[in-house]
Amino acid sequence: YFEGPDQKEMTRAEAAIKRLKKQQTGDLSLEDMSNCIKDNTWHRRSRSRTYLLLVPLLALYYLIPSFQMVFAEAQRSYATGDMERCYLNFGCARPWGIFPDFNHTISNLGYIIYGIIFIAIVFYKSRDLPSENQPDVDHKSTTGVIQQYSLFYTLGLCLILQGAFSIIFHVCPSNVSLQFDTTMMYMMMTLVFIKTYQFRHPDTSANAYNAMYSFFILLFLEALSLYITRKETKIVFYAICGFIYLAVIIYLSIDNYFYGAIKISYSTTVPILCSYIFACTGARHPIRLSLMVGFFLFNLVLVIIVSARVLDFEDGVSSLSTTILLLCSVNVGLYLSEYLLRKIVEIKDAHEGRQILRFCVFFVFLLLCLIVGLLAGVFYSKKLQSRNLTPPESRDRNQLCSFGDFFDNHDLWHFLSSTSLFLAFIFLLTIDDDLFLIKRSQIKVF
User: Fold this and answer.
1) Mean pLDDT of 267-287
2) What are phi and psi of 30, to 5 degrees?
3) Helix (H) or strand (E) holding 348
4) Fewest beta carbons within 10 Å, which of 7, 178, 189, 243?
5) Residue 87's Cα: distance from chain center in Å?
6) Which of 222-236, 394-408, 419-433 has the highest mean pLDDT?
7) CB 401 within 8 A of CB 407
8) H or E segment at 410?
9) Alpha-carbon torsion 83, 89, 90, 94, what sign?
């Protein structure tokens, strides 16, 4: 008997208790993680379709004022003749119309084109699925990973929006306008993390509302960092951000270890958790506990490295953008690596026919994504301007166009990074396609 909560909360609590009881005797299967979404429409849609509704809506409201602000800044630069407001590569800036750097604008079309193609692929794949695995009924099926394709559609839209925001940024590049360019990068990495986790944890994955509020806090801290210019204040600010970040890592790790039971009722589960910790008994799942501790220690090292970098800061503007990108990309890469290693073991344990096909699919998309991504990183690292230097120092880095007398290194970064993201999304879309005919009771949770 549960006091207080409505029927929806009772269902979640019952499912959490069922998972906790089973994990005492063995590993959970996907069937154990797919109880709430079967009958609770709100629970299911808030973890899938709501992303598709919220993310584009919020992005459109974000898009209009960001364009207004950046375009107004560019207009002030032209009116006053002070072109030092915008950090361009003047050696390879090809103006056209309202765009002072049209080559960097048109090279962003790759994101938009790939985003449209990816949405089309997701649509046609969803139409070609087995009848019991169609997105609108697969939550009631007993085979395969639950599809929930709305997150894939959202990723395609984010790729399109990344191109739009990058175009806005290149109207007048600066540390302030950079946050418009990086917003969709954070969003895509966050959604990749959520979607990967959702494959095997559909009941306990993050709902769209909590994710968007957390995303707001992230953007608020990024914006705040632009106006903290004194070195001493920066150290305090980064220390606070570091403690918040590590606290979130601890919370997510513990919640994942107990399969989402912690957040059902904090007043009930926190005392039980404390008694479990102080009982000093052996861990029920030493491997999962080791991974949880390793994940925390890895992030602690990252925070220390970032903190050491802060000590070298001087007075002036410095944004959290690079730090956030680093933390997001490294954690997404770490989690995907763990998922891939376990997936490879899963494939090796399957019958021989699946092994050859799946390994081919793995290595084609994975290797192409990594190779193109590394090439993109090489071109990005060869910067021809720097927003963290004074305008004259930044101009000293400017160079002439090196590709067809129209494109420079940053344009190649746009072309290659959009291709790498597209390949990564295709890889994510097909990663569990070998499980369509496998009973959910036989699919392991990891």
Assistant:
1) 65
2) -60, -30
3) helix 321-349
4) 7
5) 27
6) 419-433
7) yes
8) helix 409-430
9) negative
Q: What is the pTM of this model?
A: 0.88
CA–CA gap between residue 433 and residue 365 (Å, rounded): 14
Q: How many residues does the chain have?
A: 446
Exposure string (b/e) for 318-342, b if CB count within 10 Å is 16 or more? Answer: bbbbebbeebbeebbebebeebeee
Let me know how many helices (H) and strands (E) the chain has, helices first.
16, 0
User: What phi and psi, each to the nearest 5 degrees, are found at residue 35?
Assistant: -90, -50
220-242 pLDDT, tens per residue?
998 888 888 787 888 888 889 99
Two tokens, residue 367: 């290797």
> Does residue 366 carry a pLDDT above 50?
yes
Mean pLDDT of 300-308: 86
Beta bridge partners of 284: none
Instruction: Please spell the DSSP secondary structure of 98-128, one letter per residue.
Output: TBTTHHHHHTTHHHHHHHHHHHHHHHHHHHT
Q: State mean pLDDT over 20-37.
A: 79
CA distance 108 to 99: 13
- List the one residue out of 173, 310, 325 whose CA is nearest residue 228: 310
Q: What is the pLDDT of residue 13?
A: 67
Round to whole Å and give the CA distance between 385 and 383.
6
Both tokens of 4, joined, read 């207080």
CB 336 within 8 A of CB 196: yes
What's the chain's average pLDDT?
82
Judged on CB neighbours under 10 Å (0-12, 13-18, 19+), 7 is: exposed
Token pair 């409505």 in the structure block, residue: 6
Residue 368 sits at the vertex; the CA angle it makes with 321 and 379, to the nearest 5 degrees, is 45
